[in-house]
Structures are given as structure tokens and as C-alpha cells.
Amino acid sequence: AQKVTQAQTEISVVEKEDVTLDCVYETRDTTYYLFWYKQPPSGELVFLIRRNSFDEQNEISGRYSWNFQKSTSSFNFTITASQVVDSAVYFCALSEAGSGSARQLTFGSGTQLTVLP
Amino acid sequence: EPEVTQTPSHQVTQMGQEVILRCVPISNHLYFYWYRQILGQKVEFLVSFYNNEISEKSEIFDDQFSVERPDGSNFTLKIRSTKLEDSAMYFCASRRSRSYEQYFGPGTRLTVT
Prior knowledge:
The complex is a heterodimer. In chain A, strand 5 and strand 6 form a beta hairpin. In chain A, the strands form three sheets. In chain A, strands 2, 5, 6, 10, 11 and 12 form a six-stranded mixed beta sheet that branches. In chain A, strands 3-9-8-7 form a four-stranded antiparallel beta sheet, with no helix packed on it. In chain A, strands 1-4 form a two-stranded antiparallel sheet. The N and C termini of chain A lie far apart (about 40 Å). By secondary structure, chain A is mainly beta. Chain A has no helices and twelve strands. In chain B, strands 2, 4, 5, 6, 9, 10 and 11 form a seven-stranded mixed beta sheet that branches. In chain B, strands 1-3-8-7 form a four-stranded antiparallel beta sheet, with no helix packed on it. In chain B, a hairpin with a 5-residue loop joins strand 4 (about 30-35) and strand 5. Helices cover about 0% and strands about 50% of the residues of chain B. Chain B is mainly β. The chains are: A mainly beta, B mainly beta. Chains A and B meet through strand 5, strand 6, strand 10 and strand 11 of A and strand 4, strand 5, strand 9 and strand 10 of B.
């Protein structure tokens, strides 16, 4: 069965610092998808990024970057020059392709990021 | 930009009552999901729905729960006899065919008293 672990329950940084959120996953499937979602205090879940298991190229998008390492089953997320508006709970999630067409998400327990002014 | 909508935003009900939570997925999406998040905890999968039938469900989704797509736009989650432990935020999500990212609605906070 699939599992996602986010060992960091809470992180606090001061504005403009860089911060990395860790995610480790377990799956038996050879094809799977990894996601990061953001949950601001208002409560909605906002999709940020998806990565396929066969694409280990890391990416930078503005202040966000992702580090996907299959060898260590990790999918870490970095915010550069953090801002107060980045304060939210960040969830890492996994979807296995082998689960048929459903592709439901398995979420980690989330990391509460607080960016202090 | 199209988005998933959910009503009501907050529902308070008494234990043993039936509740129906409503969702309008994004119009060209074909796969629909319900998830639950108990306060302060992780988001948990409940059920997925495709082609007018349940495609997968979790252990949480027992006989007290049911889903329906009563028309071409709505997708509902019914809890027949609510329990205190059903108090949670319920999220609806949808995705396109041949896509992997799911887009979530704003959630319905269910409070069972």
C-alpha cells in the first residue's frame, strides 16, 4: 500500500528565508505521480505541482522548486525568499497509476509553515 | 477559470440525522472524488466516481455513505445517520480524463452535535 510521510509537522521561518519541506513516499508501483498541495488558513486545497515517476528532472517555478529523487523516495519542496502569504499547511500526495482509473490521492500529514514578518 | 464549488460551506446537524453535501465539479471533468479531513489531521480519501458508478472506495466509506450524480452537474455525498465522528471538512475534487491532478472545492465543514 502507498504511504506518504512528512516528518516536519511545523516549521517557522522569518520572511525572505528559504525553506524546504520534506516528503518521503512508499509505493510498490513503478508508475506513480507526486503532488504538492497548499492549504491556506481559509481551508481550501490548492494544487501546486505534479511530478511523474518517470520524470526526475527538477524544476524551478518562480520562488518554488522541487527536488524529486527516486533513489531515496523523496519529493522535497523549496520556497525561496519566503513571504508571509506563504504561511499555510503544505501537503505532499501520491497517486498510483496501478490503482486503475481512480487514481485517488494519498496525502501526508502536512507541514504547517509559518512565515514571520 | 473554472472551479469546483461546494454547498453548503458549513452544515450543523444532530447525531442520527441525514445530511447531503453537494458539489459541482468542473464541467469537462469526468472523475469525481470525495475526501475528508478531520480537524488538524490529514486529508483522507473516501470514494471515487466515474461513469455513474463508484470506481474505488476506502474503508471509511461504509454503508452509511452514498454518492450520486443526480444530474449532469451535481455530485452529492449522503451520510444517512450521522455520528459525532463524522464531524470533519469534506472536500469534493474532480479531474479530467487522461490527467492526474485533482482540483478541489472549498470544502463543507460538517459539525455533528
